[in-house]
Amino acid sequence: MIWRIVIALVALVFCSAQRDPILVPEVSQDEIQVRQGFTGQELLLFGAILEPDGRRAGQDYEIVVVLKGPTEPIRLREKQRIAGIWINAESSDFRSAPSFFAVASSQPIGEIVDDKTAAIFELGLDWLQLSPIGEIDTEKQSRFTEGLVDLRRRGDLYQENPQGVKISEDVLYQARIQLPSNVVTGTYVAETFAVRQGRVIASATSEVQVRKLGLERIIANFAQESPFIYGLIAVALSILMGWLAGRLFALV
């Protein structure tokens, strides 16, 4: 009797899953090479949404694309002006701030899903989860979170485009996201969500590798593997360049 109930439940779950559309995502390139003089690059994320039997999923859905760069711990400091001098005051640590975060959607997020769904799937900068470390003061964390988002937004590292996804022929979608020249290398994850009547009905992920090549890669690897020696060499080169500049000015 019990095994029949289990089989019935499994069949019910399977059939329910099969009724939901499926996403078939692609990216214009799965590897971006950062060389000397790299000025940034546009990434095209595209794909299709289909019913399980291959038919078009229909017109009553929206698409949201989220591209995240590697996460990193970060300490954010707040400056205050005391006696005419700007000094470091309070600070806040975050465990896993994404180095890059971009959201593109076919309609404004607030018109697609409610706040709870947006928070669960991080569909926008207002719902970015930065994982603060230590004692959490709501007002303080809110202030530092807004500061970090604003700082990276001005550097094009955090982006939002409420009209950034184009849907054509009721089945194909595409989004263009610009990677700036100061992107961090590593694995970037593109998450695509299909939304119908305020509910996420399908999702899919794809990855893009951002790699440094040539001299930049050698220097970056050396800095990560031997940071102490790299620091000594950097200081030595700075002293040498200063000495050479002084000698040149003395000869003029």
Give me a quick take on this structure.
With 252 residues, this protein is an alpha+beta fold. Helix content is 33%, strand content 39%.
Report on the architecture of this protein:
The chain is built from 6 helices and 12 strands. The protein is globular and about 80 Å long. A hairpin with a 2-residue loop joins strand 11 and strand 12. The chain has helices at 2-19, 109-112, 115-121, 138-154, 215-225, 227-251; strands at 22-27, 31-34, 41-50, 62-68, 71-82, 85-98, 101-105, 158-161, 165-168, 172-179, 186-196, 199-212. It is an alpha+beta fold and 252 residues long. The protein has a domain at 22-70 and 99-210: Sandwich (Immunoglobulin-like), CATH 2.60.40. Mean pLDDT is 80; it is low at 1-18. The strands form 3 sheets. It has a 6-stranded mixed β-sheet. A 4-stranded antiparallel β-sheet has the order 1-3-10-9, with no helix packed on it.
On the 0-100 scale, what is the average pLDDT? Answer: 80
In whole angstroms, the N-to-C terminal distance is: 98 Å
Number of strands: 12
CATH superfamily heading of the domain at 22-70 and 99-210: Macroglobulin (MG2) domain
**In CATH's first tier, which class of the domain at 22-70 and 99-210 applies?**
Mainly Beta
- CATH architectural label of the domain at 22-70 and 99-210: Sandwich
Query: pLDDT under 50 segments (min length 5)?
Result: 1-18
Helical segment tally? 6
What is the CATH topology descriptor of the domain at 22-70 and 99-210? Immunoglobulin-like
- Principal-axis shape equals globular
Q: Major β-sheet, in short?
A: 6 strands, mixed
The percent range for strand residues is 35-45%
> What is the structural class?
alpha+beta
Oligomer category: single chain
Gyration radius over CA: 24 Å
Order of the strands making up the biggest sheet = 2-12-11-4-7-8
Q: Approximately how much helix is present in the residues?
A: 25-40%
Please write the string of helix (H) and strand (E) elements. HEEEEEEEHHHEEEEEHH
